[in-house]
Amino acid sequence: MIFVKLYFLLLFKFASARLNFEVADTAFDQQLYEDVLDAEECDRQIKFIRRNPLLTLQFADAGIRVPRGLLQGNNVDLGNYYQCLDINHNLQDMDLQGKYCSILVPMNQTFHLPREMEFSDWAQLKALQEDEELLRRMGEFDRLRSQIRIMTGVDDGSRTLPAAPLVGTVLRLSVCIPKPCTTQQAMTSFIFNLTNIGFQYEDDFCRLPNDKPWVAAHYVAIGIFSFIGFLTILSTSYDLYCTFYLKIDRKQLNTWYTSFSMYTNGKRLTYFPSGPSNLQCLDGMRSLAMAWVIVGHTFSSHKFYLNGLEGFLWLTSLASLWISSGTITVDTFFTIAGVLIVYTTAGKMDGMRLLKNLHLFYLNRLMRMFPILAAVVLLQSSFFNNMSDGPTWTVVSRLTNNCRTYWWTTLLHVQNLLNPSHLCINHSWYVAIDVQCYILSPIVLFWVLGRKRRYAWAALTLGFLAVLVSSTIYNFIYDFQSATVAARPPSETNRYMHNYYFFTLTRAAPFFVGMIFGYVLHLHRNEKVKMPWLLAILMWVFSLGVTTTIFFHTHFITQWDWDNQLADNFINSFIRPAWGAALCWIIFACVHGYGGKYLVY
């Protein structure tokens, strides 16, 4: 009970709080980046490189370029990460090694060419004026600069031109420089002092070979997984020896000795017992929902670098609706969880027994997920960061840093409340909400498991209305957008994700809908509900109409011209319980023979 009390303390005390711990960047060796910097050595190496055309070509070929497909939305040029880090020449008095860096360059900036009085070397100026070819190129550059300024909105240009499409664009460019250099020193020495013409940029990150240090999490992971592997070998050997060599009846084997056996556990994982009280249709519904989640994340995890505008236009089109509307499928799992928590618990115990065994009720649920979640957190904190590498590996390193800082909020299932912007395992927010709903469910379950049905219905109805009304008030106060893809600033999307999408209150309604239908299924556990086929058909039409409407509404709310905050608030408040109710009818119909023989069997 100590764990339960601690959990409730954290849940209610910090439900509206946000932890502002500084996430230390320990995934990469920051000290290594500082130690290699040497201004004098940098100048010496760059002079050597400029005297050797092949070396100059190596650094230039792996480095900065203007992104191709800029007008199609591509603002990223990744250079050649591996080519840059593979530059390693051990010379007689010099260790020449490449360093890959990423810089952020805003398009909306003003450039100016130096005037005559800005030159301190008049001889150099005289030579410059006599170089007609250089003057011609500078003139071309000036004209090109003017065109870029018009396109980026710095100058008005022609009044007939359309609005500048690249205003506010920030280019992410990659440069390959010698190891002891900073980006500013390297680019100034290689080219000329870019700051003198108004060129502005911001350092993003730099990378060197072998810059991922081992931390305590690596050694903990080795110790724990080595111990588990050792137990697995012993347990599997004992199981196979007794089963196939000694021919001992499996019922006589020591269950503790076979608890880590791959043979025994493998059979359990691949065997699904079926009984008269099992809700078999949930297996199909769960499988389809998982497939939808996997496909959706496969598309959303891909970065549209080369055709960002086309990718966004496709994402807001009807052709991609099966992807953009996939976020609703998460509520399928919340609904199923609500159905099962009532249906399975009501068949085992009453209200008083639930209170007496509350610790077992919690442990039974928590221990099913905790070991695998803890293992993933440990791996993300350690070896996942070392598995591969690349120019976009900062996405993985960010998760590694989050896990090393907020691992405890993930294991306590409160990361969606305390640090939603720094999730350790991105998709574990769902597990947190599911566990939180499970922990709070006995408040309603106690009455549901009693003998008086009116108390059960009152508790279920009041619980559902409390969640629905509270979430509706919350949504109307904060005015969130109603889709993960919307024509709004990124800050608004982040606010929607952190304060709505990951928030327990706004996602609990389908869980309570599932609890209500789980109680209905429990009341008719040993009987078949008979209803007129016309009513069953009408219910199917209503259910499919609701799910179809929810599916297609995503297309309208993701369009550029969508601007209806009132509709957004209603959608956020009622769409998820409506989806859960429609699915619950499908479950009910299949269990009681109104789903067709293919759905029932």
UniProtKB/TrEMBL annotation:
Keywords of the record: Membrane, Signal, Transmembrane, Transmembrane helix
Which GO molecular function terms does the record list? Answer: acyltransferase activity, transferring groups other than amino-acyl groups
Coiled-coil spans in chain: none
Transmembrane stretches, start-end:
216-241, 288-306, 312-345, 366-384, 429-449, 456-478, 498-521, 533-554, 574-595
Q: Which InterPro entries match?
A: Acyl_transf_3_dom, Nose-resist-to-fluoxetine_N, O2_lipid_transport_reg
The segment(s) forming the Nose resistant-to-fluoxetine protein N-terminal domain are 39-208
Secretion signal: which residues? 1-17
Q: Which PANTHER family match?
A: O-ACYLTRANSFERASE (PTHR11161), O-ACYLTRANSFERASE LIKE PROTEIN (PTHR11161:SF0)
List the protein's name. Answer: Nose resistant-to-fluoxetine protein N-terminal domain-containing protein
Q: Which organism is it from?
A: Manduca sexta (Tobacco hawkmoth)
